[in-house]
Amino acid sequence: MPKVYIVGGVIILALMVYGAVDALMTNKRRVRGVPRIAWFFIILLLPVLGVVLWFTLGKDRGSKSNARRPMAPDDDPDFLRGLGSQKEQERRIQRLEKEIADLDDDAGKKE
């Protein structure tokens, strides 16, 4: 029976350490409720309950504000905005090439 208590204690200690380190290392924007340092002390003062509360209530898992998820090009506004300017650049290049060709033709006729 003492082995069960030792193994249980080690598991609880490992969860506490993992939860405390995770609470301190998590980005401030992803912490809900109270500040990170308060979550750290909650985890230390309430070993099992504190870790459970941290992972269920304290850490925002749904949104990663600094990470962009990949999206299809037709859904990406930056890509679509770039298409308009790219088409405009192609039109200007074609217009300039035509003007240069016209100038070359005019220069050839004058000589």
Please give a quick description of this structure:
With 111 residues, the protein is mostly helical. Helices cover 72% and strands 0% of the residues.
What report would you give on this structure?
- With 111 residues, this protein is mostly helical.
- It folds into 2 domains: 1-61, no CATH class; 72-111.
- 72% of the residues lie in helices and 0% in strands.
- The chain is built from 4 helices and no strands.
- The protein has helices at residues 2-25, 36-45, 47-58, 77-110.
- Helix 1 packs parallel to helix 3.
- It is rod-shaped, with a radius of gyration of 31 Å.
- The N and C termini lie far apart (108 Å).
- The relative contact order is 0.08.
- The mean pLDDT is 84.
Name its key features.
111 residues, mainly alpha, 2 domains, 4 helices, 0% strand
Query: Distance between the terminal alpha carbons, to the nearest Å?
Result: 108 Å
Number of domains: 2
Structural class determined from secondary elements: mainly alpha
Morphology: rod-shaped
Tally of helical runs: 4
What is the gyration radius calculated from CA atoms? 31 Å
**Could you list the spans in which at least 5 consecutive residues all have pLDDT below 50?**
none
Question: What does the average pLDDT come to?
Answer: 84
Number of DSSP strand runs: 0
The proportion of residues in beta strands is under 5%
Largest sheet report: none
Helix content: over 70%
**What series of H and E elements makes up the topology?**
HHHH
